[in-house]
Amino acid sequence: MKILRTISDCKQWRAQVSLEKSNHSSPTIGFVPTMGALHIGHESLIKTSRKENDFTVLSIFVNPTQFNNPDDLKNYPSTIEKDLEMAEKNGVNAVFIPESIDQLYPDQYRFKVSESEFSRELCGAHRPGHFDGVLTVVMKLFNLINPTRAYFGEKDHQQLTLIKDMVNSFFLPLEIVACPTVRETSGLAMSSRNTRLSTAELALAPKLFETIKQIKNKEQAIKKLNDMGFLVDYLEDQTHFENDRPKMRRYVAATLGKVRLIDNVEI
Ligand code: PAF
């Protein structure tokens, strides 16, 4: 497994891979962008990419521009050794771990990709600038890796929707593959942030998904969550086109202790 630390490492690896032919055509590259602290949800993205592509690249970069809260950035979990073990075990071909923030932001974030509607709602309304940071870093990574397909979890459904829209709007030559949310047996969506929950919070956290699924009335669901000890940022039902079909989805974000959890369910 190749470890890429700089932009030139990435370009070199990508150029070398392009020369390798599979069945007389260009090899396919699957890309799994992450911020590390990998869990079974990431592993399932990697496994899907491995099945569908000749090569799989993983990136691990805690992207500062998508954090509006410095404490959240400071406390973001990091388990790099374990991450590399998981990547290796799953047959990842290359891992891009930029050696510095400047590798990805030589412009000091003077240039950015922004979206003016959906990115300002839901998580965007509570985390100003968050999606500008996400879209910008994802665009940079796509340009560097030039993947055939990129894999994103449905847990971050708003992020997934915005990335799909960005790819369509800028005619980027890749396919975005949406992968189902991986859950604990309790129903709690897997997230790197779950490691920061206390034992008591971990026992309560599955109620988030249970409540948004079971209580149809929005106001009642919010009240129930707040009464249980969550601090609800938002709970909203929205309709969006997914694969050309309108789908109604319920989105939620709530803080438990010091940890902000998000989830969604098709309704
Ligand atoms: O979902 C994430 O982990 C991040 O938002 C991403 C897509 C890797 C961009 O930093």
What does this protein structure show overall?
With 267 residues, the chain is of the alpha/beta class. It has 2 domains: 2-179, HUPs (Rossmann fold), CATH 3.40.50.620; 192-261, Pantoate--beta-alanine Ligase, Chain: A,domain 2 (2-Layer Sandwich). It has helices at 7-19, 40-52, 70-74, 80-89, 101-104, 123-126, 130-145, 157-169, 199-204, 207-214, 218-228; strands spanning 2-4, 29-34, 55-60, 94-96, 149-153, 175-179, 231-242, 245-256, 259-266. A 6-stranded parallel sheet has the order 1-4-3-2-5-6, with helices on both faces. Helix 7 (130-145) crosses helix 8 and helix 10 (207-214) packs antiparallel against helix 11 (218-228). The N and C termini lie far apart (41 Å). The model has no long low-confidence stretch (mean pLDDT 96). It binds pantoate. Pantoate is lined by residues 33-35, 63, 66, 134, 137-138, 156, 159.
Q: How would you sum up the major sheet? A: 6 strands, parallel
CATH superfamily of the largest domain: HUPs
Q: Helix/strand-derived class?
A: alpha/beta
* CATH structural architecture of the largest domain: 3-Layer(aba) Sandwich
- The CATH top-level class label of the largest domain: Alpha Beta
Give the tally of structural domains: 2
- Bound ligand species: pantoate
In terms of DSSP E residues, the strand content is: 15-25%
Count of DSSP H/I helices: 11
C-alpha end-to-end distance: 41 Å
The low-confidence runs, each spanning 5 or more residues with pLDDT under 50, are none
Shape: globular
Helix content: 25-40%
- Mean pLDDT, to the nearest integer, reads 96
> How many DSSP E strands?
9
Strand order of the largest sheet: 1-4-3-2-5-6
**Element-by-element helix/strand order:** EHEHEHHEHHHEHEHHHEEE
Multimeric state: single chain
